[in-house]
Design a protein that fits this description.
Shape: globular
Strand content: over 45%
Distance between the termini: 40 Å
Structural class: mainly beta
Order of helices and strands: EEEEEEEEEEE
Largest sheet: 7 strands, mixed
Number of helices: 0
Radius of gyration: 14 Å
């Protein structure tokens, strides 16, 4: 089981940047794939970016390519999401999540509490 805690959310003006962090704890973190999601009021939760603990391979949804960057620090067991060129449409609760890859790949079963990102115009 993995425990996740997000931080770094807040209020930022349009065009600004914000850095989010996810602190992970638990055994066998190297067997997990980490992801960032967001959910705006009245909308479904949306996948943004993902990264593997061991290989460092990344994936992004097209809507955030070039603006958001996911990274990790294995020594600190943290996964970060750098948000750049923010606009009001990026306003949402941002979540850190994890899914196990081994021995069998599974869906994202572990979630943090979320951190609010609000972008003003």
């Amino acid at each position: 089981q993995v425990q996740l805690v997000e931080s770094g959310g807040g209020l930022v003006q349009a065009g600004g940047s914000l850095g989010l962090s996810c602190a992970a704890s638990g055994p066998t973190l190297s067997t997990y794939f980490m992801g960032w999601f967001r959910q705006a009021p009245g909308k479904e939760r949306e996948f943004l970016a993902g990264i593997s603990w061991n290989g460092g391979s990344t994936t992004y949804t097209d809507s955030v390519k070039g603006r958001f960057t996911i990274s990790k620090d294995n020594a600190k067991n943290t996964v970060s999401l750098q948000l750049n060129s923010l606009n009001p449409e990026d306003t949402a609760v941002y979540y850190c999540a994890a899914r196990r890859l081994f021995p069998v790949a599974m869906k994202f079963d572990f979630w943090g509490q979320g951190t609010q990102v609000t972008v003003s115009s």
